[in-house]
Specification:
The complex is a heterodimer of chains A (231) and B (433). Chain A has 231 residues and is α/β, with parallel strands linked by helices. Helices cover 39% and strands 20% of the residues of chain A. Chain A has 2 domains: 128 residues, Response regulator (Rossmann fold), CATH 3.40.50.2300; 90 residues, Arc Repressor Mutant, subunit A (Orthogonal Bundle), CATH 1.10.10. In chain A, 41% of the residues are buried. Helices cover 54% and strands 17% of the residues of chain B. Chain B has a 5-stranded antiparallel sheet with strand order 2-1-5-4-3. Chain B has a 5-stranded mixed sheet with strand order 7-9-10-12-11. A two-stranded antiparallel sheet of chain B has the order 6-8. The chains are: A alpha/beta (231), B alpha+beta (433).
């Protein structure tokens, strides 16, 4: 999953990015509201982790009321952008939670929080986003559990690398949908990461080798999909 | 017995008693004087009329003989033989002295008037006791109304005192109803002039208490809020360390955790400094004459390792001794925060100038840096605690300048922010002369 982390605290952001990467997510990190606005209006993410107690702007001398996060959220929803947002904040009054949720947040976590809980909430929000109730993705004989990061083929565990898993998860979240190579690359690489030219092809090849050659369909020049032919 | 009502009442009753005694005594004295003159005149008239009359008529004699009569007449011959009354009474003066006289017979004093004719001596006597009795009766009559009025007065006074003291009771109830959560001022309406200043003073105290409590509550809330960020970082860093898949990641996570602990420790230390520097929470330390230069040199020495790590050079210009009235430890904290801020925000490898001198008699500390400075519009707000004027990479607590202002205020020193010739911020602390 490609996540945008909006967090002004250097240490928190650093650790969160590290932990989310360990979970196999691609994480881009911005540290102020203005950058968050700019990024969100130009790029697509699967989920946004938004710190509410954010300086509205980092420009020196500018107004720095600590509701920058809420402004980002409102602007996002005003553009009818339905990207799921989990709000992170140090404010835990009921009013703050209500304000955050009413502004369009999908979930709410109060600092300091547990990484396991954050992971579970991210998965839950993504699950709701894709309109599913069950957490395990199943396409044909392949099932994928985002929580445990386990993949089985006809009940037998299959070992995948983090990036292979990311590609498979992206495809299995929307069975039948075609994902372009660029879309898959987005899921694999954050900013500043060098994209290997034929990386997607390599991971698709590995997945086909492990899950069966016809599990992933390829429409040449358009993209890849799973489950399209398995009615 | 400490009740105002009881005291006022006892005082009133005591005064009434004194008035009664004085009035009675005066009346007694006056009436006694008046009756004396009147009765003396009567005695004399009676005696003279008897002399002129010559004989005592039988009908007169029976009247005079009446034992109840206050006035007793005796008549002797010139050689001392009693003529009248026929029966000699032993309790009467047996001898006459011409003119007025007080004669004691058997413990009873008589007032007598005697007159001599050619062959007889006539004496008219009256017990002196009668006069005293009359005077005492008159005195009692004049004082009696006072004793009747006294209970009524006492009742009225009791009621008046209760009424006058009712506002005090209201104030008491009001004060009882106050606690640390509700310190609103007591109502001052309808208070007598004697009680109003007390309530005014109480309200002033409540106001100051409320302000102080509010400041402390805000401080604790702010502090708790601010502690969340470093604690969140610590928790994440620890969890990241636990999840580290390899040695390299573990080493990185350990380094991050150590930095997180340093940051939390520094914030706690800064919070303690601020708690000591905040007005209202300040403990009164004894201010003595201390050398400002020494305090600043200590502060620079404490910041030196950090400055060296950033390659920043701190230059001190402090040759002459500068004496200020103050607390050496607090002033070291003040200087350390200024120098630390300067090093923190100055670009690595730049210069920080620290100068201590007597500026026309005013002890002055000045710190210059080459950092981004602070825009004039922000120069007041940066003194607010937890205010960070930019989300920079610097892990400032947002407390440094709040601490500086607090300590400066304790030393009646002024802090001003200016543009520095080095390109960054200039902080000037001017102490009282």
């Amino acid at each position: 999953m490609r996540l945008l982390l909006v967090e002004d605290d250097r240490m928190i952001g650093d650790s969160l990015r590290g932990a989310l990467r360990l979970e196999g997510h691609v994480v881009d990190w911005v540290r102020d509201a203005a950058s968050a606005q700019a990024t969100l209006s130009s790029e697509r993410f699967d989920l946004v982790l938004l710190d509410l107690g954010l300086p509205a702007t980092a420009a020196p001398g500018a107004e720095t009321r600590l509701d920058g996060g809420l402004a980002v959220l409102r602007a996002l929803r005003a553009r009818r952008d339905a990207t799921p947002v989990i709000v992170l904040t140090a404010r835990d009054g009921p009013g703050d939670k209500v304000a955050g949720l009413d502004a369009g947040a999908d979930d709410y976590l109060v600092k300091p929080f547990d990484l396991d809980e954050l992971g579970a909430r991210i998965r839950a929000v993504l699950r709701r986003q894709s309109g599913r109730a069950e957490s395990t993705l199943v396409v044909g004989g392949v099932s994928l559990d985002p929580a445990t990061r386990q993949v089985t083929l006809n009940g037998a565990p299959v070992l995948l690398s983090a990036r292979e898993f990311a590609v498979l998860e992206a495809l299995m979240q929307r069975p039948g949908a075609l994902l372009s190579r660029a879309q898959l690359e987005d899921r694999l690489y954050g900013w500043g990461e060098e994209i290997e030219s034929n990386a997607v092809s390599v991971y698709i090849h590995q997945l086909r080798r492990k899950l069966g050659a016809d599990f992933i369909q390829n429409v040449r020049g358009v993209g890849y999909s799973v489950g399209a032919s398995s009615k | 017995m400490n009740s105002i009502r009881v005291r006022v009442l006892l005082t009133l009753l005591g005064m009434l008693a004194v008035v009664a005694v004085v009035m009675g005594a005066l009346t007694y004295h006056n009436v006694l004087g008046e009756t004396e003159a009147l009765f003396d005149y009567q005695l004399r008239q009676m005696a003279l009329s008897l002399r002129d009359q010559g004989e005592i008529a039988p009908e007169q004699a029976s009247t005079l003989n009446d034992e109840q009569l206050d006035v007793v007449v005796q008549v002797w011959t010139v050689d001392g033989r009693i003529i009248y009354p026929p029966r000699l009474r032993s309790d009467l003066p047996s001898r006459a002295r011409l003119g007025f006289a007080d004669i004691a017979v058997e413990g009873k004093t008589w007032r007598t008037f005697s007159v001599a004719t050619g062959d007889r001596v006539i004496q008219v006597a009256q017990p002196l006791q009668i006069r005293q009795q009359l005077a005492a009766d008159a005195a009692l009559r004049s004082v009696a109304p006072l004793f009747l009025i006294a209970p009524a007065l006492a009742l009225v006074l009791w009621w008046l005192a209760a009424r006058a003291l009712a506002p005090l009771q209201r104030v008491t109830d009001g004060v009882k109803a106050r606690d640390e959560l509700s310190l609103q001022p007591l109502p001052t309406g309808g208070l007598p002039d004697e009680v109003a200043p007390l309530v005014g003073a109480l309200n002033g105290l409540l106001q100051r208490l409320g302000d102080s409590l509010g400041a402390q509550r805000a401080f604790v809330a702010d502090a708790a809020h601010e502690l969340r960020s470093p604690l969140t970082a610590l928790k994440l860093q620890l969890q990241l360390l636990q999840r580290s898949p390899d040695d390299e990641a573990r080493a990185e996570a350990t380094r991050a955790l150590a930095a997180g602990i340093d940051r939390a420790a520094r914030l706690v230390e800064q919070l303690l400094s601020l708690a000591r520097a905040e007005p209202g929470t300040a403990t009164t330390t004894t201010h003595t004459m201390i050398g400002l230069v020494d305090a600043v040199r200590n502060a620079v020495a404490e910041t030196q390792p950090y400055a060296q790590a950033r390659g920043t050079r701190i230059e001190i210009d402090a040759d002459a001794p500068v004496l200020v009235q103050g607390d050496a430890a607090a002033l070291t904290v003040l200087a350390r925060n200024l120098v630390d801020n300067a090093v923190r925000y100055a670009p690595p490898g730049s210069r920080v100038d620290v100068k201590v001198w007597n500026d026309a008699g005013v002890p002055t500390l000045r710190v210059d840096d080459a950092g981004p400075g602070i825009a004039p519009a922000d120069r007041e707000r940066v003194f607010d605690r937890f205010y960070r004027h930019a989300a920079g990479d610097e892990s400032g607590s947002g407390l440094g300048l709040a601490i500086v202002r607090g300590i400066a205020a304790q030393h009646r020193a002024g802090v001003t922010l200016e543009d520095s010739p080095l390109g960054g911020l200039r902080v000037v602390v001017r102490f009282a002369e």
